UniProtKB/TrEMBL annotation:
HTH lysR-type domain ranges (all copies): 42-99
Domain of life, per lineage: Bacteria
Transmembrane segments: none
Protein name as catalogued: HTH lysR-type domain-containing protein
The UniProt record lists the keyword rRNA processing: no
Keywords: DNA-binding, Transcription, Transcription regulation
Listed NCBIfam families: PRK11139.1
Family membership noted in the UniProt record: Belongs to the LysR transcriptional regulatory family.
A matching Pfam family: LysR_substrate
Biological process (GO), any one: DNA-templated transcription
Gene3D superfamilies hit by this protein: Periplasmic binding protein-like II (3.40.190.10), Winged helix-like DNA-binding domain superfamily/Winged helix DNA-binding domain (1.10.10.10)
MF-aspect GO terms: DNA-binding transcription factor activity; sequence-specific DNA binding
Length: 349
């Protein structure tokens, strides 16, 4: 039987080679695709650095993606060029650019790394077939998703839900997520989307705050002369609601208190610090328990909504399908409950 093939001595000197024989432990279908000679593969770490720099055309950005220093990136590129004996980049005052040889090499190398990434993702998904990764906002997680997850778990006890939080728009190629719940106008590229509920806002406060700050004549407008609680990420909510209801003048001289998130703003309202703008869909629990009230009962429908997103090219996944069905069913039920709530506002006079 023929022994293993070896690379020429100059290549073997100083570099580890990969040799395969017919006695290899690899399956036959893989052996049939392996050349009869050892694969001539450069050191993989410098090759990975080359792929990133070639893609980004920027040493600083490449260093950030790889979580190393810029000098480390330069050293890895030098190692690869030394191994190949070919100049891959031109060093210029403003950075680096690919040489003709470098561009041709990058064109062949990049798909190989993409294939490795796809194979790795597929392997990890198969290994974690009972795990569902959900990405959404902290406020949505705390005020809507967590209080309802026990119901999902009771129906599907074999599916483990892992929730991660982020403010930026989801990128399924980058983020470790099977689905995402995202706020916006819809129409994002390369995703399938389902509307959960629209953005409906109105003033909310604690019952104690309402009793304490209502005038003896029962004028709701007097509430707007007190302290208005404002969320950093939803600064225009008060302005939009006041203008829509013709009440801007009533709140012209009111005190404002700001918070970094909506969840903190609503907590301040729960603790009686003032009156906040609430998102009706996210505060159902507080309304049902009587912890927060809607004194004006004049909700404003915004143009944006909460959406369930999943990748356009996602293969069928039972765990994604059952989560989607549960989420849409739950959201529809709660939309109906909100629609059937009190509609007639108390008198503002």
């Amino acid at each position: 039987m023929r022994g293993p093939c070896r690379l020429p001595d100059p290549i073997r000197a100083g570099h580890r080679t990969h040799r395969y024989t017919k006695k290899s432990f690899l399956p036959a279908f893989l052996l049939s695709r392996i050349p009869a000679v050892s694969l001539r593969i450069p050191p993989l770490n410098p090759l990975r650095v080359f792929e990133v720099v070639a893609r980004l055309q920027n040493l600083t950005l490449a260093a950030q993606e790889l979580h190393v220093s810029q000098s480390a990136v330069s050293r890895q590129l030098a190692t690869l060029e030394s191994y190949l004996g070919v100049e891959l980049f031109r060093r210029e005052h403003r950075g680096v650019t690919l040489t003709r040889a470098g561009a041709a090499y990058a064109k062949r190398v990049a798909p190989a790394f993409a294939e490795i990434a796809a194979a790795t993702d597929g392997l990890l998904q198969n290994m974690s077939h009972k795990v569902l990764r959900v990405r959404t906002y902290t406020t949505f997680t705390a005020k809507w998703l967590i209080p309802r997850l026990e119901d999902f778990h009771a129906r599907h006890p074999n599916i483990e839900v892992i929730v991660s939080n982020g403010v930026s728009e989801v990128d399924f190629d980058r983020d470790a997520a099977d689905v995402a719940i995202q706020f916006g106008l819809g129409g994002w590229p390369r995703v399938k989307e389902d509307v959960l509920f629209t953005d409906e806002i109105e003033p909310v406060c604690s019952p104690e705050y309402l009793d304490k700050n209502m005038s003896r004549h029962g004028k709701l407008e007097d509430l707007l002369k007190g302290r208005l609680l404002v969320s950093k990420y939803r600064k225009t909510d008060w302005t939009d609601w006041l203008e829509a209801n013709g009440l801007s003048a009533a709140a012209a001289n009111s005190e404002r208190m700001g918070f970094s998130t909506s969840i903190l703003t609503w907590q301040a309202a729960l603790d009686g610090l003032g009156i906040a703008i609430g998102q009706s869909a996210l505060l159902q629990t507080e309304f049902n328990k009587g912890l927060l009230v809607r004194p004006f009962r004049r909700p404003l429908q915004r143009s944006m909504s909460y959406y369930l997103l999943r990748p356009q090219e996602q293969r069928f996944s039972r765990r994604v399908a059952v989560f989607r069905d549960w989420l849409l069913e739950t959201a529809a039920r709660e939309r109906e409950a909100l629609a059937n709530g009190p509609k007639e506002p108390p008198s503002l006079g």
